[in-house]
Specification:
With 191 residues, the protein is mainly alpha-helical. It folds into two domains: 105 residues, no CATH class; 47 residues. The chain is built from seven helices and no strands. Helix 1 crosses helix 4, helix 3 packs across helix 4 and helix 6 packs antiparallel against helix 7. It starts with 14 loop residues before the first helix and ends with a helix. The N terminus is likely disordered.
Length: 191
């Protein structure tokens, strides 16, 4: 009996595909693109599994710069090298930059209006909801994490308390908790 080779997950077809895909992602990302990127790359395009997304997102978060830009660079580079990284980056930034500049000009004209300020404050609740929903969707992937579910939950709680309640600098929290997580994972994966 012969075994069929495992199906490769779909990949971007070209740098142009990366550019268009990341442009569309960026245009959907009002208040943050984490939820949109996860849905598009994992659920719709299936360029990544949930586990791959969590791993890449974790790396993107500890690198300097916007998380989703870092993620786009990693996906682009993995697909087509430097050309792919630049295509994904251009897709993530070009059209949104033009739109933001136009909106900044409009905002300057109406910033003093109470309705505008109230509308912008209301969007904070929507952004928080998007982040919470994405966290809940990705929670299931932690079951297979090398650290184990309990330790992942524990680190997540400690991180939340340190950043949200104690307002410790994110760099210190990432370095300390990330260092602990990396050390434990290294020990568990070491042959």
């Amino acid at each position: 009996m012969t075994t069929l080779p495992a199906q490769d997950s779909p990949k971007p077809q070209s740098p142009t595909d990366l550019f268009v895909s990341f442009t569309l992602l960026a245009l959907q990302g009002f208040g943050g693109v984490l939820a949109v990127v996860q849905r598009e790359l994992v659920e719709k395009k299936r360029w990544m599994t949930r586990e791959e997304f969590i791993e890449d997102w974790a790396v993107a978060q500890i690198m300097p710069g916007p998380n989703v830009v870092n993620l786009s660079l990693m996906i682009g580079a993995r697909s087509f090298g430097l050309k792919g990284a630049l295509a994904a980056l251009a897709g993530m930034l070009t059209v949104p930059l033009v739109i933001v500049l136009l909106l900044a000009l409009i905002y300057a004209q109406f910033a003093g209006q109470p309705g505008v300020a109230g509308a912008l404050r209301g969007m904070g609740a929507v952004a928080a909801g998007l982040i919470a929903a994405t966290g809940l969707k990705l929670f299931g992937a932690l079951v297979n994490n090398v650290l184990g579910l309990r330790l992942c939950i524990g680190l997540g709680i400690v991180c939340f308390v340190a950043v949200a309640l104690y307002r410790w600098p994110l760099a210190y929290v990432l370095l300390s908790l990330g260092g602990i997580a990396c050390s434990v994972a290294y020990r568990k994966l070491k042959p």
